[in-house]
Design goal:
The protein is α+β, with helices and mostly antiparallel strands and about 300 residues long. It is about 40% helix and about 20% strand.
Length: about 300
């Protein structure tokens, strides 16, 4: 009986109560961000906390798929708590906003749910996301705008020492496609890159049968970060058309970020691909001192809404 009484005062691991002062500060931040997003021309969208599991698994990556909270309803349909907001918004855009003029400029502030093996500050099973989706604008200028808005939102939250890393998924896809490796082999290498698993990457490449030169190039990719010179170096190192196009796209985005005055904030990181399968172009992550994981991230996806 004592154990049951104690349980009544507990909450599940990875969740938290917002006491009045915390709830007040949370609401102030949400109101501030809503105003900022609307100043940039975005409109709010709200989607269900529950979605069909099949909808949510479209392109989220095996890691996030594994970490979803899922269960059966009374009709034996598999449901899940949303692990992020991009896929639900893509569903709405494809099913209910398909006749709206493009580009669609949508924003959200919502709770999301992911199983976290090791609970720590900033790593909870239920947490809140604020973000924007710019749908139907397939230009480097649109990509630069999203990054600039992310930096502005974090500045408004009072974060200092912001650092932005940008990469290009198609660069890595192009480099791997010209190796002749099978799709599962390429996926395993990408998984190692996502996790910065250099030991695993070396093992995969050593077993791949690739020439030492190609192995050395792929091994170098996660170490290629800096400013514009990194892009020029990579262009000289690859003969793959897709990879070169991706690098030229990334250079254009970098130049446009200079126009936003963000040169000091942004670095190129060619090993950055993120753990979501739906990304098809530029990707970015934002870091702040004191945290070993990104406080913000995103990228281009051109096929999720189809």
């Amino acid at each position: 009986m004592e154990r049951n009484v104690a349980l009544l005062t507990q909450i599940p691991a990875g969740t938290k109560d917002f006491l009045p002062e915390d709830a007040k500060q949370k609401r102030i931040m949400e109101t501030s961000w809503s105003a900022l997003f609307e100043q940039w021309g975005f409109r709010e969208i709200v989607t269900p906390t529950l979605e069909y599991y099949q909808v949510l698994t479209a392109g989220v990556g095996t890691g996030l798929e594994r970490d979803m909270y899922k269960f059966l309803d009374r009709q034996n349909s598999i449901l899940a708590l949303r692990p992020d907001m991009t896929t639900p918004i893509a569903r709405v855009a494809a099913s209910r906003l398909q006749d709206e003029p493009l580009p669609l400029r949508l924003y959200y502030i919502a709770n999301v749910f992911q199983h976290v093996a090791q609970i720590q500050a900033g790593r909870q099973c239920e947490f809140y996301q604020a973000g924007v989706e710019l749908l139907g604008a397939g230009t480097p200028m649109a990509d630069a705008e999203i990054i600039a808005l992310a930096v502005e939102a974090l500045r408004e939250a009072g974060l200092n020492g912001i650092h932005v890393s940008i990469g290009q998924v198609e660069f890595i896809n192009g480099v791997l496609e010209e190796t002749g490796l099978t799709a599962p082999e390429r996926q395993a290498i990408k998984h190692a890159l996502v996790n910065r698993d250099f030991v695993g990457l070396a093992k995969l490449l050593g077993e791949s049968g690739l020439t030492p030169e190609k192995q050395a190039f792929i091994t170098r990719i996660p170490l290629m970060h800096g400013k514009e010179e990194v892009i020029r170096e990579a262009i000289a190192m690859t003969g793959n058309f897709k990879a070169k196009q991706a690098l030229q796209n990334l250079h254009t985005i970098f130049v446009m970020l200079e126009m936003y005055g963000l040169t000091d904030y942004v670095n190129v990181d060619l090993g950055l691909i993120r753990d979501f399968d739906y990304y098809t172009g530029m990707v970015f992550e934002v870091y702040t001192p004191g945290l070993g994981f990104p406080v913000c991230g995103g990228g281009r996806y051109d096929n999720l809404v189809d």
